[in-house]
Amino acid sequence: MLSLAPAPVTDGLSPQLHLSRLSGSAFLLSWTIDAPMLSRPRIALAGGEKRLASASVVLPLGDGRLRVVVVFRHGGPGEVVATLSDDNPGGDITARFDPDLVHGMADAEDLVRDATPDARRMLANALVGHWPTLFGLSQAAGYLGFLRQFLLILARKPSVAAPVARLTEGKILLETTVPSRLSGVQTAYRLDAGGLSRLPGKPRLGRADRAGNRPLHLVVDEFPPQAGGLLILQADSGLIVRTVAARQDVPSLGRWWAGKASQRDGLRSWLVEQLSGISEQGRLLAIEMQRRLPLAAQVVRRNDDLPSAELDLAVTTPAGLLLGGWYRDAEGLLDEVLLHRSEGEPTPVLERLDHFPALLPAGTNGDVKRATGFAALIPGYARGAPVLQPRVELKLKSGTVLSLRPNAQPADAVAIRARALAAIPPQHLTAQMLDRTIAPVLSECQRALRESQPEPRIKSFGKGPASPAVSVVIPLYRVYDFLRVQVCAFAADRWFAEKAELIYVLDSPEHEGEVAHLLGGLFLAYGLPMQLVVMGRNGGFSAACNAGAAASRGQALAMVNSDVIPDSEGWLPALLQRLEPHRRTGAVGPKLLYDDGSLQHAGLFFKRDSKGTWLNHHYFKGMPSGYAPANVERPVPGVTGACIVMPRALFMEIGGFDDSYVIGDYEDSDLCLKIARAGLGIVYVPSVQLYHLERQSISKSLDYTRGVASQHNSWLQTRRWDAQIEALMAAIDKPAPQQLVPTPGLRPEPDFLLSRANLRRATAA
Description:
- GO terms for molecular function: glycosyltransferase activity.
- By secondary structure, this protein is an alpha+beta fold.
- The chain contains 18 helices and 38 strands.
- It is 26% helix and 30% strand.
- The strands form eight sheets. Strands 13-12-16-17-10-11-15-14 form an eight-stranded mixed β-sheet. It has a six-stranded mixed β-sheet with strand order 26-29-28-27-30-37, with helices on both faces. A five-stranded antiparallel β-sheet has the order 1-2-3-7-6, covered by helices on one side.
- The chain is elongated, with a radius of gyration of 37 Å.
- It starts with a strand and ends with a helix.
């Protein structure tokens, strides 16, 4: 350190200057100012008539003086002029020095001498925080030695931060304790021989123990045992220094998780968040640990009228935490519902609960008790990390607290979707409940399923046409009863066999062997080439159809359900003829019949329900197939996805089916609305008729709840297309055909009746 002669002074000021080297061309200037005290002192540095980049901090001393500490770089020859100025009109003070003559390294003891505790904290924050970044000192050996000396002056005998668990991706969990007065730890740094580095993530502070200490945990990169170093914690109320302990045998996460430390709810939840933020492997490890050693579920059940409750739904997604359960509060004693998070105070959530009537299972005496069911979405919980057993408390007006904890909850998107669909009974579900509680969770589940969908596998049976006129895409999900009849009908159609490409898409890949064997046998029996696209995982109707379209080569696409059977040849070219460009037709659909010959579909239209939601309806549903208005070819608002034919290029251009709709409903009308938005029409072609054994496969979906899924999908359609549907229904087909109720006994027998008995015989053949 170089002590400079006093500079010329003004108004009795007597400055003391010390200049030292931090590292290479980085210097530290300390200018201590005697009385009278300046109000806002600052220092400007210039070298060779150019202002030097610098950073400074003003430190109050215990005796009333001020010390201005300045860090700057000077790489060229010549003197540096330091100008001390103030807002007072007394004038500036200048000092000149040549940094090239300075060889002494900065001395931390001299720098902090007489400094107040606040001054030391201010200087420490500058030395650890922004100065190393500004002046490139984070890996400078000289600066690192000075900084270590400085920190050990502040903390003469720092406590230990020890690695307690080995995580994943080269991460470890550090654990230490800090005084209970410490709060708001914002940033953590590590100082060792390799440099000064800011650690990612935020440390977690636990609750204070009886000795007045708070546990602190932090996830850091694993380091060699000999590395050691210091852990520096910047908090609102001060700065904490800890020695990083060297340890050869860091326990596995499984060993640590089995210990008492991991039984604390907040710590477990925080670590789940940290693991999920590391990688997908970390997220899976977090799920595994929670399932391997779950916490005991907590339920409050009583036979009297005192409050009781159960939390049986608590699934996490990026949209938030979806809670569900019931409580009984006959005397109105409930004050608040509190959700515990990994950090901080519990969050009140009572106002976010959606309520509905619930009946509890009968007790030993056979009585059925009424309760209040509830569901709520809490945004931002655990940042979407899979916390499987969050804790909720019911706080009573008396101050009594009832703790609730569910059994370990599901973490995969399919299971979460199923739980969300069952969270609120369909008869009690409202648009508001959908909007704020159910729909955000379903949206995240659909997004997760879309993004995690593996690439499908394709198997070929025979070689189809080189340039198919049309690709027929048929999704399969668990119901394969009609494949023999369908393939037989396709094979008997000469035009189909010569010019169509047949693609089955298996959306239940667990049945790949069974279905491949079946299709292989049908190919040998009928000689009709076909492909089997096997989804990597169940993705729903939209995803399956889109995967089949991506694998197709035809100029046109025919999306057909697996339970749709043609009753004659030539149905495909008859539909394709209506797609001629001059017609500006974007899609066509045929007449669809039930197996008893009555009408299932003669075009699709929209109609509001009593709540204003647009629902899908089929013209003349249930009427005899010969009903005259159903035999008029005409534009319609839409056609069903059970059989829709359109140009492949158009399907790709508008994005295909939208998989935001849950499981399999309303995505066909959404597709039709996108076609209408593109300025193209949709035509119903009654001269082509097929049999449709409606919804045979969707009823097999384990998580299909007709009421909730359908309500969600109609709500989503209305939210997206309300104005467009209003305009479309006002403009198309004036006057629009009215849906009529069939009169019993007026259904004529069709020329060809595809009865269930015939189907059973054909399937068994």
